[in-house]
Amino acid sequence: MPTLSHRITTLNGGGSDGWDVFYRARAMVEAGDDVIELTIGEHDIRTDPSILRAMYDSAVGGHTGYASVPGVSALRDAVAARVTAQSGVATTRENVLITPGGQAALFAAHMAACSPGDTTLIVDPFYATYPGVVRSAGAVPRAVPTEAETGFLPDRADLEAAANGAASLLINTPNNPTGAVYPRDTLEMIADVVKTCDMWLISDEVYDTQVWDGAHLSPRALPGMVERTLVIGSMSKSHAMTGSRCGWVIGPEDAISALVDLATNTTYGVPGFIQDAALFALRNPILEPEVAAPFLRRREIAARVLKGQQLVQAVPAQGAMYVMLDVRATGLSGEAFANALLDAEYIAVMPGESFGTSAAGHVRVAMTVDDAWFEDALQRLCRFAALLAEAV
Question: Where are the transmembrane segments (predicted)?
């Protein structure tokens, strides 16, 4: 029997992909257990019915054949207009490639920025798929550590120490898993290092509509960055269209032209009726705040619950749909705490170690269930942590 390729068998770096608790929780649910799942960033509301009607009308109307590989022109124009309005950087359809979701956009961006064997930097903690997507593009991930005490923001000295020989840097703001929103001075520092080291910057901005403190700034808008930045966007988080798989890469025209060639030989584009639904959604801006509102509300619930105790500490959640909790006072690692919580309370959270080493001793809680369930789960989590601490 022929062997599988080295590329495919080493996507996870020879270890776990960090999703063990999630898979165990799902198995418990399938077995009939009542588990409160606070693991992945899946909205508890579904795609708005008006978007689904637009999708249905497009499909019934015949937009079910091959769509333009770069993306339907009207959608590319709408994405370009959105990016121009948000960032202040003039953007046209020639700067836009429509992809099957943000994950495919991440892969495409790394294929454009990295040759086989190149090093790409990722800020730790990172979204769990980042190392794998880097490896899938033939590159080698190198983590840049951060600290909870400084809000998980990258430090210049650490970034410069890791940058030697690197081809690209991947950042994510608003950040999953930490909830950090990178301030201007951090982004200016990142831009300076990227320019000095002649790297590409890949900026994952899929949570740009979920900012609770501060303001989102796309690094593409900083001086000298438009020609070396690839921006990742998606309809998944902003419009609760996770299953529709519609995202994009924004970049220089020559990079997008090359990525169209990649799409022609891999995904061959996104279904036209999906793109028409995305276009409808972008033309109805009231939908974005409606999708974001529950997470802002639950952020306040989390602050109220956590204020009533001193053991479990929250990293300030400035954006996105998560809150990162420091559970080191229990004496357990994040992974051990998450597994114990699942066994004792039937509450599933993601270990901080799923996202690298910098968030060890933390757990990420997705704010993705009904308000009352969310508050109850957090209260139970805090009580459970207190019991563990007493036993230390």
Answer: none
Rounded percentage of the chain residues whose pLDDT exceeds 70 = 98
Domain match, 98 and 40 both: no
pLDDT band at 18 (very low <50, low <70, confident <90, very high): low
CATH of the domain at 176: 3.40.640.10
Residue 227 pLDDT: 98
Q: Tell me which residue of 102, 85, 87, 79 sits closest to 278, measured CA to CA.
A: 79
Q: What is the CATH number of the domain that holds 340?
A: 3.90.1150.10
Range of the domain at 128: 49-282
Domain boundary among 224, 255, 282: 282
Instruction: List for the chain the helix, strand, coil content (%; round to 5).
Output: 45, 15, 40
- Residues 101, 236: Cα–Cα separation, whole Å: 7
Complete DSSP assignment for 75-122: HHHHHHHHHHHHH-----GGGEEEESHHHHHHHHHHHHH--TT-EEEE
224 close to 338: Cβ distance less than 8 angstroms: no
More confident residue, 159 or 12: 159
Instruction: Report the candidate in 180, 106, 158, 181 with the shortest Cα–Cα distance to residue 136.
Output: 106
Residue 1 resides in a domain:
no
User: d(Cα 156, Cα 10) in Å, to the nearest integer?
Assistant: 30
Token pair, residue 87, equals 């960032």
Report the alpha-carbon distance of residue 182 to residue 271 in Å, rounded: 34
DSSP state of 48: P
- pLDDT tens for each residue of 320-374: 999 999 999 999 999 999 999 999 999 999 999 999 999 999 999 999 999 999 9
> Which of 229, 255, 282 is the C-terminal boundary of a domain?
282
Query: Is the whole-model pTM more than 0.85?
Result: yes
Any idea which residue has 């951090």 for tokens?
186
Q: pLDDT tens across 54-73, in order?
A: 999 999 999 999 999 999 99
d(CA 309, CA 108): 45
Beta bridge partners of 360: none
